[in-house]
Amino acid sequence: MKKKIFSSVLFVSLLLCINGCDNEEVKVSSGTNLTQEHIQQAENLDKKSYQGLEDVFLDTKTITANDRIPLLIFGKNNCTYCEKLKTDIKEDSQLKNLLQQYFAPYYINVSYSKIHHLEFDKPSSLSTSDLMDTYVTSPLRPTPTLVFLNDKGTTTYELPGYLPPKEMRKVLEYMRERQWQNKSNATIASEIDTLLRSSH
Predict the structure, then answer these.
(1) Are the CB atoms for 136 and 158 separated by under 8 Å?
(2) pTM of the full structure
(3) Smallest Cα–Cα separation from 183: which of 154, 160, 144, 161?
(4) Which of 72, 119, 187, 198 gives 183 a disulfide partner, CB atoms 3.0 to 4.6 angstroms apart?
């Protein structure tokens, strides 16, 4: 009787061990799949930041000119003026059309981190925080901050803060018409400042 119990226990233990090994293999395999899913999920987190504007903003994984003027818009979660800017774009068809037709706009949510591949003259890969460090020079780093680039990936104009739709359209028109070409950043900033003052 003791031999039968011992044999049964040994048999069950052996089965559990074999099944346990099989399950362990599945767990490792599943873990790898979950890791890929988590990577994908992390890369897409920022897309929720501009939900409803997917027809305007491009995926920030790869940032390039696309034969248009690159525009980086740095925002973050719980930013009242970032939300106001996105609402303006949704509700103001002129603003939305300008962005869609003449710009390569990227909404970069600095509340999340991912790697951005910049495809300009000198291709590079930067984390979200390094991207902000590279392009946002305003000491307080306000959000939203809009950074217009040339086709080489160099800043032509940085606009820290929010502008109402009327003023924003003026800035976009100035950039669209490429009035900034062959001018220093200081001259561009001065011309845009004059343009915005004339609208008041």
Answers:
(1) yes
(2) 0.79
(3) 154
(4) 187
